[in-house]
Amino acid sequence: MSRTRPPSLEQLRRYAIARSLFAPTTLPQAIRRLGFVQADPMRAPARAQDLILAWRVKDYRAGELESRYRRLAVEEDCFVNYGFLPREHLALMHPRTARKPWDRETQARAQELLAHITEAGPQHPAQVQALFDHGQVRGYWGGQSNGVTHLLDGMHYRGLLRVHRRDSGTRVYEAVQHPPQDDSPAARLARAEMLLDMVLKLYAPLPARSFGYLGTLLRYGAPHLQPEIRLLLKKARQRYPHAEVEGQVWFWPADEDPRSRRHRPHESLRLLAPFDPVVWDRHRFELFWGWPYRFEAYTPAARRKMGHYALPLLWGEAVPGWANLKVVDGRLQCETGFVGERPRGAHFEEALDQALAHLSRFLGLEDGAGEG
Questions:
Q1: How would you class 267 by CB atoms within 10 Å of its CB: exposed for 0-12, middle for 13-18, buried for 19 or more?
Q2: Residue 41 forms beta bridges with which residues?
Q3: pLDDT tens for residues 217-262?
Q4: Is residue 106 within 8 Å of 99, Cβ to Cβ?
Q5: Beta strands 369-371 and 331-338, pairing class
Q6: What is the tens place of the pLDDT at every residue in 272-298?
Q7: What is the pLDDT of residue 3?
Q8: How far is it, in rounded angstroms, from Cα 5 to Cα 179?
């Protein structure tokens, strides 16, 4: 426990917003500063990675990350979820040992595909499918999926392939070899420490419960380092600054001070993706804003309370409600919902209009936006 006066919950909230929603910068700098940008294939009206970057990259346009991917020192890979991260971070997780080993038949098929891609160069799954037919397999979320696509995905996860580019959203793969890593106990512990540092850097400040949960999610990106990660989480109070605030123990990076007066969130209004670092942690969200935000895209329509892809409305330090967006006849349409009454006065309406105009430019729409 720090000997200095602990921050208040209001200071923690202000710090969380200001440190994550930094002044817009270049695309490479934004990715480097975040350390990880979670990806999601759903467009509502843009993919999550683009909505996250829309507020952090100057003049960013939807799809820009995908179109510039080959020229950037970033990689599509797994961390606590699937997304984009600076290329140098791969060495913390690769060579990756999957929790479920392949059987001999699957290993043989993977080696056959790897030999082909190594010789032929970057390959679209359809090109591979034309030469290798592995039938249908059970998909990750149930149902059936293409056997070749499923195997390519597994090869990517195990570090045999990397994403070379995307064609209309489909991953095009090329062969890759990750250098061997020092597997000594000290080196493994050091990599685990850096991964936890990345988690805290991205999502701080974090309640202890959330920090522990994110540590378990690292089993996705670094399943082979789980023993070290669990050990470090038990010693978190020895490694990171922390304080008890309103019954919760909170953690933040060693070189930051949540009480600093420089943490002043912008007074503008921003519509945040469900996976934006500011709102990703639903437990923290409720501690900060006093109401439960839910992602309902996979909830039956009749049971939804907020909508298919509700975006929290961050207005300065407040989150009074949410919005659902869609493009109709070339115009951005917005349907809002509020926890209590809709904020009154011209200031809120002007802030919402400016946010929608920003997102219209981001989407490449010429005709502006409006509420439906």
A1: exposed
A2: none
A3: 999 999 999 999 999 999 999 999 999 999 999 999 999 999 999 9
A4: no
A5: parallel
A6: 999 999 999 999 999 999 999 999 999
A7: 56
A8: 46
What would the pLDDT profile of 97-110 be if each residue is shown by its tens digit? 999 999 999 999 99
- Cβ-proximal residues to 262 (8 Å cutoff; 6+ apart), any chain: 18
Q: Find out whether 56 and 34 touch, Cβ atoms under 8 Å.
A: yes
Distance CA 241, CA 208 (A): 12
Token readout for 123 is 């390959």
3-state secondary structure of 341: coil
Residue type, 265: P
How far is the CA of 72 from the CAs of 95, 165, 166, in angstroms? 22, 11, 14
**Using an 8 Å Cβ cutoff, are 284 and 210 in contact?**
yes
44: closest CA among 65, 64, 62, 66? Answer: 62
In contact, 162 and 156? CB cutoff 8 Å? yes
Residue 367 has pLDDT above 60, yes or no: no
* Beta bridge mates, 242: 251
Distance (Å, rounded) from C-alpha 92 to C-alpha 163? 18
